[in-house]
Specification:
Layout (H helix, E strand, L loop, with lengths): L1 H5 L4 H8 L4 H11 L7 E5 L5 H8 L4 E6 L2 H10 L4 E5 L12 E7 L8 H11 E12 L5 H23 L11 H7 L3 H11 L3 E6 L4 E7 L36 E4 L15 E4 L1
Parallel strand pairs: 1-2, 1-4, 2-3, 4-5, 8-9
Antiparallel strand pairs: 5-7, 6-7
Helix pairs in contact: 2-7
């Protein structure tokens, strides 16, 4: 998390460079897959500086909830985005939303950093309604040993070098070296797909850059294969908790999140680091 905070001014441009120009297009491809939920509540899990949330809002998504453990990153994202963005401090392993309260979830270059991948996927499954969807964009780890070792050379040597050349002393150190230990911890692409199918539902994994980048598209277990917005579906009790626009200061977002009284029953539980307070 700290590495992303340090790299905020250059995060998007360097991410594009070290992904060989694929980071942005893959985010957009995943967002397009979630297009049926443009008028519904969509979670950007691991919001970071708000790159994915910005694309969601700019492509017609009306209600985006951004969850991240970093108040600093959420403050930055909120300063860049409009009223359709609702920041919430939280972690993937303990999402502070009622079961079935969200329609879709997008997580880009963030799922790899959770402490407990299984529990995180179970939480996502819990908060997504039937007929909902999950789209993941992240670094991949090829199943084949040859391609995995080739990618490891790029991750351990090429990526840090490219990032250092682009940083040129403008930020402290080289926070993009965090990708090296992250890659070592990754599941292989095949194991990731199997895990998502087990914990969430039918999934499809697509590989890019020799398997070094992946998109996983998953439908909530127990849902039909078509994802369509159900006419007349009430959202009154399915609106996730969010910070009220113009309420309080973002410097306090890690301690108090304000909830409109009409939405109070949405909350099932809160993560240990957040205290809930009705506005």
């Amino acid at each position: 998390m700290e590495a992303v905070e340090y790299s905020v001014p250059l995060y998007e441009s360097i991410s594009e460079a070290i992904s060989l120009g694929l980071a942005g297009p893959l985010r957009r491809r995943a967002i397009e897959w979630l297009r049926y939920f443009r008028k519904d509540w969509v979670l950007d899990l691991g919001t970071g500086p708000g790159v994915s949330s910005r694309i969601l809002l700019s492509t017609g998504f009306e209600k985006v909830v951004g969850v991240d453990p970093s108040p600093k990153l959420l403050k930055f994202a909120t300063s860049m985005l409009g009223d359709g963005f609702h920041p919430v401090v939280g972690i993937a392993e303990n999402l502070p939303f009622r079961a079935g309260s969200l329609d879709g979830v997008l997580t880009c270059f963030a799922l790899r950093d959770v402490k407990d991948l299984v529990e995180s996927l179970r939480e996502v499954s819990r908060v997504v309604r039937n007929d909902g969807g999950l789209a993941v964009v992240d670094i991949g780890k090829p199943d084949g040993l040859f391609w995995r070792e080739l990618l490891w050379l790029y991750v351990s040597l090429g990526m840090p070098l490219v990032a250092r050349l682009l940083i040129r002393g403008r930020i402290r150190g080289n926070p993009f070296r965090m990708i090296i230990p992250t890659f070592q911890r990754l599941l292989t692409n095949g194991r990731l797909l199997a895990l998502m199918e087990r914990e969430f539902g039918p999934s499809k994994l697509k590989e890019f850059m020799l398997g070094g980048l992946v998109i996983v598209e998953a439908k909530k277990a127990g849902s039909g294969l078509e994802m369509r917005i159900r006419p007349g579906r009430s959202l009154l009790h399915e609106v996730p908790v969010a910070m009220r626009p113009g309420d309080g200061t973002l410097s306090n977002i890690n301690r108090v999140v304000h909830i409109h009284p009409a939405l109070s029953e949405v909350v099932q539980r809160a993560s240990a680091s957040v205290h809930w307070q009705l506005a």
